[in-house]
């Protein structure tokens, strides 16, 4: 039997995995979400000997069950190859009092590569399966990392175009240059005068605009999404939680069956939701600790069951988490309400109109899996310094938010469960913040900081930022947030 993926907003809107990947977002505005979970035999005696690719085969095979094993094999071996600068793909590093799961060894040195290196293969395979003749237009809003990782995956992939919108003043210099220097005839990068929420809201609007869909269809085009709203992003992210657990067993840090916590620096709630799905298929997880920066809407939600986006948007040193409308939380809400699409649709409408909603009553067992906390800018910088002083290891600011929240969590709860920190970016992506935090000196330029980071960390400059300073800038378009659709129509010649 094939797994059913249903829209979170309409119980009649159901598709298979490959259809969900092709569509990206449901046209009713909801997100395709599994209604039941596949049975996966998590035998850690076997899992601990498996490569990342073998674990991926097991998990993807279970969740993406209308792909053949051969199709998945091909996608996996093309995705997780020498693009990654570590053959373990997601190495687990033991530090003083925590384990850091390094998810930044792919081509853009952020965790988005974990899923975006495979999504183009899943999508083109799904297109072939369904005999799709249309060209797929990937429309993406990015808070800094998704855009580059999606383009790295989709650049010059036949049958696709990719358009990326990013907040002009909301990303780091390295992030911006990574995007504006992107090559590939099918790539288009647009800066907007606005923040990430503006970008994401307008992208969602375009997905739900029937008139625009008809115009696309007329030109044999159709949208899909590389954002974590696409289930093809979430499922590959389940893999590394299982892999990390297996490595802990292999290294003798835990015995199979022992509970482990994961702390996840969270923005759009995609990464932590993948951990939630890992728990649903039987991974022994104790707490999922949701870590936020000063945009702490999720911390408040887990304390009060009220989601209230009516607050000022803060630009922080962990820009990929500068989000007030956390898209994937909708999937958790749906599950907390016992997979009730009508009620979820009601709450999402309230969010759009009133800027808030309250979920009551919720499935307390599921809700209780989560703990939440947030870190100030100062705490984040202090945490980078603390970890460096203890372990000579430099965390990027997103990872440091998680690690700071974890420190506060243990101080509050005395929970001694072994804990893995999802380390979502290389410090080389945020060199100025990392170097300032460690040295206490300010005024570094991006490129001087890259040099200094090598001296401090003893880790060589990753390929992803090598040569960035001199690479030609190919994308210079800037538009107002309300002109995003006009720009899409212009670019596609609609
Ligand atoms: C995207 C991103 C996050 C947030 O992940 P979500 O899945 O959106 O919650 C955290 N850290 C980094 C470095 C990211 O790129």
Automatic annotation (TrEMBL):
Q: Tell me which EC number(s) this protein carries.
A: 4.2.3.1
| Pfam families noted in UniProt | PALP, THR4_C, Thr_synth_N
Q: Which residues carry this modification: N6-(pyridoxal phosphate)lysine?
A: 112
Q: Which GO terms describe its molecular function?
A: threonine synthase activity
- Residue span, Threonine synthase N-terminal domain: 5-80
Q: Which residues are in the Tryptophan synthase beta chain-like PALP domain?
A: 101-338
Cofactor(s) listed = pyridoxal 5'-phosphate
Keywords in alphabetical order, please. Answer: Pyridoxal phosphate
GO cellular component terms given for this protein: cytoplasm
* InterPro entries xrefs: Thr_synth_N, Thr_synth_N_sf, Thr_synthase-like, TrpB-like_PALP, TrpB-like_PALP_sf
Alphabetized CDD domains for the sequence = Thr-synth_2
Specify the enzyme's EC class, one word. lyase
Q: Which GO terms describe its biological process?
A: threonine biosynthetic process
Q: Which family does it belong to?
A: Belongs to the threonine synthase family.
UniProt xrefs under PANTHER family: THREONINE SYNTHASE-LIKE 1 (PTHR43515)
Q: Quote the protein name from its UniProt record.
A: Threonine synthase
Name the source organism: Streptococcus azizii
């Amino acid at each position: 039997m094939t797994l059913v993926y249903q829209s979170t907003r309409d119980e009649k809107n159901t598709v298979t995995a490959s259809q969900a990947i092709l569509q990206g977002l449901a046209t009713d505005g909801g997100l395709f979400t599994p209604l039941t979970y596949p049975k996966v035999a998590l035998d850690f005696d076997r899992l601990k000997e498996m490569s990342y690719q073998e674990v991926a085969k097991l998990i993807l095979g279970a969740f993406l069950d209308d792909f053949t094993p051969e199709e998945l094999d091909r996608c996996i071996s093309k995705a997780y190859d020498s693009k990654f600068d570590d053959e373990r793909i997601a190495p687990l590093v033991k530090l003083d009092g925590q384990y850091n799961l390094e998810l930044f060894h792919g081509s853009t040195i952020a965790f988005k590569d974990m899923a975006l290196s495979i999504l183009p293969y899943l999508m083109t395979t799904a297109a072939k399966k369904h005999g799709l003749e249309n060209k797929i237009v990937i429309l993406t809003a990015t808070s800094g990392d998704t855009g580059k990782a999606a383009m790295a995956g989709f650049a010059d992939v036949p049958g696709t175009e990719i358009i990326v919108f990013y907040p002009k003043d909301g990303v780091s210099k390295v992030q911006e240059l990574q995007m504006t220097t992107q090559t590939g005839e099918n790539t288009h990068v647009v800066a907007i005068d606005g923040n990430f929420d503006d970008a994401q809201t307008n992208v969602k609007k375009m997905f739900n605009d029937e008139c625009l869909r008809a115009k696309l269809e007329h030109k044999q085009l159709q949208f899909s999404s590389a954002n974590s709203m696409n289930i093809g992003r979430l499922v590959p992210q389940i893999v590394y939680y299982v892999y990390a657990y297996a490595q802990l067993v292999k290294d003798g840090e835990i015995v199979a069956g022992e509970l482990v916590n994961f702390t996840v620096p969270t923005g759009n709630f995609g990464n932590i939701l993948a951990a939630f799905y890992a728990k649903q298929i039987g991974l022994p997880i104790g707490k999922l600790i949701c870590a936020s920066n000063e945009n702490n809407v999720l911390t408040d939600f887990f304390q009060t069951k009220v989601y209230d986006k009516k607050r000022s948007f803060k630009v922080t040193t962990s820009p990929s988490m500068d989000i007030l409308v956390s898209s994937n939380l909708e999937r958790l809400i749906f599950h907390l309400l016992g997979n009730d699409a009508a009620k979820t649709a009601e709450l999402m409408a309230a969010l759009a109109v009133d800027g808030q909603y309250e979920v009551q009553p919720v499935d307390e067992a599921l809700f209780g899996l989560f703990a939440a906390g947030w870190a100030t800018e100062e705490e984040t910088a202090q945490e980078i310094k603390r970890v460096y002083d203890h372990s000579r290891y430099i965390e990027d600011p997103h990872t440091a938010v998680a690690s700071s929240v974890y420190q506060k969590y243990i101080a509050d709860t005395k929970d001694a469960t072994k804990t893995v920190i999802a380390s979502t970016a290389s410090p080389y992506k945020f060199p100025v913040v990392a170097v300032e935090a460690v040295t206490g000196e300010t005024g570094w330029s991006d490129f001087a900081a890259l040099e200094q980071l090598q001296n401090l960390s003893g880790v060589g400059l990753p390929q992803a930022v090598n040569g960035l300073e001199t690479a030609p800038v190919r994308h210079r378009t800037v538009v107002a947030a309300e002109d995003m659709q006009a720009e899409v129509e212009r670019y596609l010649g609609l």
